[in-house]
Design goal:
The protein is an all-alpha fold and 91 residues long. The protein has a domain of 57 residues. It is built from 3 helices and no strands. The longest helix has 23 residues.
């Protein structure tokens, strides 16, 4: 049997008609600027909830037992919204 060798070119970036014309390819990110803003807000709310949780020396205060966990959960909910929010079409 004869051995057939094929010569393959090295893989490179795939160029489309638009990339040849403009010289660069536009990159679309998964998250938009507003997603990052919402995520920063979520981190701030969670940190604020943990600060409320550390609060005073009274272990059984309403702020530590009720308010602070609700604030932390609200921060997590804002974080989930930031992740699941679709970027705007005009961005």
């Amino acid at each position: 049997m004869a051995k057939v060798e094929t010569k393959m070119s090295s893989p490179g970036p795939i160029k489309t008609a638009s990339s040849k014309d403009s010289g660069h390819v536009s990159v679309k990110f998964v998250f938009d600027k507003s997603n990052y803003r919402w995520f920063i807000i979520a981190i701030a709310v969670v940190i604020f909830g943990f600060i409320l949780m550390s609060g005073t020396t009274d272990i059984y205060s309403t702020t530590k037992i009720v308010v602070a966990p609700v604030v932390v959960l609200a921060g997590f909910a804002i974080g989930f919204y930031a992740i699941l929010k679709k970027p705007s079409a005009n961005a």
